[in-house]
């Protein structure tokens, strides 16, 4: 199962930290087996280190992960210093990404999705534990096949959400 590997989480640490907190709560639920790398726990390093040092530490984490979640909030598309860089690294390293829409959209949200993430082999889901788990299990495990078939802006049909009870 994809979600049993470390999952790198990319998000707006100023605006969307609450969402990461929810995800940590899901991690404690016996039915949700999320295990995350949080780039934002490097704050003590970031306070004293230059951008290159922080990015080097983030890259090391990315090299040791199998998949990434990009939490897409209201301001995510406008973040370039780290969020865009982290997405660029995932793309260049071939790390499958799950785009999670905080506004509940079940497909790519053109208004909020960072331009660099649009039209890539990424699955887009709402901010719901079961939807994220489904994407980590199915999409990330099948990422190579999706990529070979040049699939982009992937989303699940309503029937999948009905099956998940959502």
UniProtKB/TrEMBL annotation:
Domain of life: Bacteria
Residue ranges that the Swiss-Prot or TrEMBL entry lists as coiled coil: none
UniProt xrefs under SUPFAM superfamilies: Hypothetical protein MTH538 (SSF52206)
InterPro entries attached to this UniProt entry: ThsB__TIR-like_domain, ThsB_TIR-like_sf
Entry-linked Pfam families: ThsB_TIR (PF08937)
Boundaries of every Thoeris protein ThsB TIR-like domain copy: 10-106
Name recorded for this polypeptide: TIR domain-containing protein
